[in-house]
């Protein structure tokens, strides 16, 4: 059985806590949706911030909403070199022991002590899809992408939930290496 999944190439972005939204944009500020993302209830916000590391800075970093319990910045390895930091490859939400950065908004700034990761490549599965294909939450998969320079990605984490829609997430470095773009298809090998 061939299992094909859509690919989403994820550029650098930030998830903010409510407390940090208040500091960066003003007390009680509500993020506004620019466009919906592949995962139900998730959106790219109109609002953007700047992030500043020891060696570099990126302006116009898109905020993804809604607000989260803890602020998290997801960047590529190339971005990390430009910023002068060395974040680990981690699953989203696992920010313990990671480096921080300065985040600058229109109304204030926050010096994060931790929260910067290179997101581990993963596939979101709705529970029904995972059950149909015999895939377990946290299972490591091999996935082939057929861009200009086809690659097989190892250690792709299966993330299974009733809240998810089928989508593979890789960062811009991975997408560029394979010559794939958002909307392309990938094949789960095992």
> How large is the share of residues in beta strands?
35-45%
- Specify the structural class: alpha/beta
Query: How would you spell out the order of helices and strands?
Result: EEHEEEEHEEEEEHEEEHE
User: Total domains, how many?
Assistant: 2
Structure write-up:
The chain is of the alpha/beta class. It contains four helices and 15 strands. Strands 2, 3, 4, 5, 6, 7, 8, 9 and 10 form a nine-stranded mixed β-sheet that branches. A hairpin with a 5-residue loop joins strand 12 and strand 13. The longest helix is centred in the first third of the chain and has 8 residues, at 18-25. Pfam families: PTAC (PF06130). Keywords: Acyltransferase, Metal-binding, Transferase, Zinc. It comes from Paenibacillus aestuarii. Involved in 1,2-propanediol (1,2-PD) degradation by catalyzing the conversion of propanoyl-CoA to propanoyl-phosphate.
Layout of helices and strands, plus pairs?
Blueprint: E1 3-10, E2 13-17, H1 18-25, E3 33-36, E4 43-52, E5 57-68, E6 72-74, H2 77-83, E7 89-90, E8 102-104, E9 109-111, E10 116-119, E11 122-126, H3 127-133, E12 140-145, E13 151-161, E14 167-171, H4 172-178, E15 185-188
Parallel strand pairs: 1-14, 2-5, 6-10, 7-10, 11-13
Antiparallel strand pairs: 1-15, 2-6, 3-4, 4-5, 4-8, 8-9, 11-14, 12-13, 12-15
